[in-house]
Amino acid sequence: MLTTVSFSYCDENVHRFAYHPKVPRAQLFTAVAMSSSVSKSYRNSKNAIIDYCTKLSIKPHSIQVQLAEKTLREAPMAVMLGAPEVLHLGQSLIRLIKAKKVLDIGTFTGASALAWSIAVPEDGRVLSVDISHENLNKFGLALIDSVTDLRKKIDFKLGKALEVLDALIDSGECQQWDFAFIDADKENYVNYYERCLQLLRPGGVILVDNALWNGKVTEEEMDEETQAIDALNRQVFNDERVDNVLMNLGDGVNLVFKK
């Protein structure tokens, strides 16, 4: 469960969305979670090394900065925003494997789908699935719609992700997709992983977010969400169909390569 979170915004400090040359520094904000009990995607870093790495790695599209700013300032559950370094890693992987068809499990305000639309080629497709479009409609859709060359690549699908994935499998889409990003309800992480693995081609990549869950996966006492994440991490490690790298990036990512 996410607890109430307070945010402070700093327009002059180094932001983990590294500065875009056309975006004034004053437009960039930092979200600071005031409750240590929150497990989250977007994490404010106090680590100078992490800040240095992200500052010299990420060159976001101006619309990404606008969407992040609006989400962090206005969305009640802004901590669900994907960490910029995780989205940047996903974009790099998409370009590396020349992905054209991307599955995005968990839409929120649309930041991850937007990131993938930037990375895929002109004829690329991003299918973003969520059980609710409330946050997308309130905070993200108008901004994304304003960039038509990116918006045309994205299909925002309203519905239960497992049902959507099962429908793709039933319609003959197995091994037709290139990349999948999983960032939705944690209890179904294993189920999402298994479906996405069927849908991905050999050489495809699955990027699982929140794989460390604010460090809770290392604790002896785990709640149901943490148990589900830990179970997936262990399943992936023992899965002969894949190779993986579990990384301490953002809130943890499990990078999975289908053989």
TrEMBL record:
Keywords: Methyltransferase, S-adenosyl-L-methionine, Transferase
UniProt entry tagged with the keyword Flavoprotein: no
MF (Gene Ontology): methyltransferase activity
InterPro entries in the record: Cation-dep_OMT, SAM-dependent_MTases_sf, SAM_O-MeTrfase
Gene Ontology BP terms: methylation
CDD domains tied to this protein: AdoMet_MTases (cd02440)
Family: Belongs to the class I-like SAM-binding methyltransferase superfamily. Cation-dependent O-methyltransferase family.
Name of the protein in question: Caffeoyl-CoA O-methyltransferase
